[in-house]
Design a protein that fits this description.
alpha/beta; Nucleotidyltransferase, domain 5; 2 domains; six-stranded mixed sheet; five-stranded mixed sheet; 6 helices; 29% strand
């Protein structure tokens, strides 16, 4: 299994085959588009593995950075296309945060995972105490989150709510637990809950011309 997350500023690569594992984080200042494939190659070389023998992949598909998500998904699709095969576990960043929170804490009630969507907006999804989603992900204004009665949880460093760290180990563990939800790499698509700033800007320009 090769699991990749590029939804946040710090990208992560986690690899496991047999009893061999390797974890690598890419610094937030690195260009993920330039360093991700090289990092995967370095990890495989460190383990003495050949990517041509890999069949299982996982990648965070959203929500998160538009550019980051596209880089991660395109990387996995490119590897699979080169191999001519590949099953991929699409991972929700919100589900991953919920999993990490339940794993590290004694949770006794429903809670809400919150991610910064910029421009005063928040990505939100509700979970039960086992970390299973009880709503679809949705987009709300920041002030609406404050009105929700459930405890609010975010990834460490993302917002000022109660936080939980997202590590390479958690990424790999989550991916392996959800191998039964893998899909063909051709079907892999990003999870976007809002339009990118570029798309919004283009629409505004078009409206001004009307």
């Amino acid at each position: 299994m090769i699991a990749i997350s590029t939804a946040f500023e710090t990208a992560q690569v986690a690899i496991q085959r047999g009893n061999k594992t390797f974890f690598k984080e890419l610094d937030a200042n690195c260009k993920h588009s330039e360093n991700l494939l090289r990092t995967i190659d370095e990890c495989l070389a460190e383990l003495g593995l050949d990517i041509r023998e890999e069949e299982d992949f996982a990648v965070v598909v959203g929500t998160g950075s538009f550019t980051g998500l596209r880089i991660g998904i395109a990387t996995v699709k490119g590897i699979c296309a080169g191999l001519g095969r590949g099953k991929v576990v699409p991972i929700s960043s919100l589900d991953l945060i919920a999993y990490s929170y339940v794993k590290r804490n004694k949770v006794t009630s429903d809670f809400v995972v919150v991610m910064d969507a910029l421009s005063g907006l928040r990505f939100v999804c509700k979970y039960n105490k086992e970390g299973q989603p009880i709503s679809q992900p949705f987009l709300v204004k920041a002030e609406e989150v404050d009105l929700m009665p459930e405890e609010k949880v975010s990834a460490a460093g993302n917002l000022s709510h109660k936080s939980t760290p997202l590590t390479c180990e958690v990424l790999l563990e989550f991916a392996l637990k959800h191998k039964d939800k893998s899909c063909d790499y051709h079907l892999l698509t990003p999870l976007y809950l809002r339009k990118s700033q570029a798309e919004v800007g283009l629409e505004e320009k078009m409206l001004k011309k009307i």
